[in-house]
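The instructor's notes for this session suggest beginning with a concrete chain rather than abstract definitions. Hand out the sequence below and ask the class to guess, before any prediction is shown, which regions might be ordered.
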Amino acid sequence: MSLSPRVLRHSSISLASSASFAAIASVAVLAACSTTRPQKVAASPGYAPQTPLAYDASPSSHASIGAPGQLREAPRGEPTDRPGLGTSWGEAVSAPISFAPFVRATSSPWAEVLLHYNDAGGVRAHANYLGTRIAPLELDAGDGALSIALVDDDGRVLPGVAAGGRTLIAGEDGQRYRILVKNQTSARFEVVASVDGLDVVDGNPADPNRRGYLVDPHGTLAIDGFRTSDDAVAAFRFGRVADSYAAQTTGDRNVGVVGLAVFAERGSAWTTRELERRDTADPFPERGYAAPPR
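After discussion, reveal the predicted structure:
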């Protein structure tokens, strides 16, 4: 029997004010979903391994498109040290989840968001070069239906700069952070998130075809770390590139970037743009007067 795609629910947050994402207390969702038709989903999805492992990208390791590859022991030796920040495997954080159905409207993301991060000195120097300054920064996804930010352990939006088509967020060595997504609409969206090129759910190289977190209508999703089980995650913490989870598993090539692929739900994509079009719909778009015969 074919089963509907399922999603996992875990703790998210509500906004204490429009200026910052603060109090944590609401509900969000992690999705295992198909694109256009239901498919079977494993009862116990794989999560990020706690022991550093390397990803085997050989063709034989993939049973189907988007399927996780095989894992092998990471090579011995210290990763090459690089300046700036990476995201390390932090302490265990309670983040229980459950499942809910979700089917994507299309196989292509409705919106994609890219956030680069570095230490405060590097971002400040970049901002000065561009003639701007760093400030608490939230980024809109798509037509503004969702807003996205990185926040610290107290829920304060991290500072950054958006210029030249690039968004740079400033962090501090040892600082814990979360990825926050606020839904401004009455529709649900699925968010597939990656940190340093790794899927935040299973720790493998990221692919938008994987399951993702679901943001409820007018809800706010908090992604606290790399998921280790149905009940917990390993917190995101800024640290040396050589100490990052990516450097100790697949390599440090993609360290310093947070990515989100946002998918609309089939049959209920009530985005801000769609609501505006309906609100301004003209019942007589061709109003005018009779024209003389030719």
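Then share the key points. Residues 10-35+80-279 form one domain. The radius of gyration is 21 Å.
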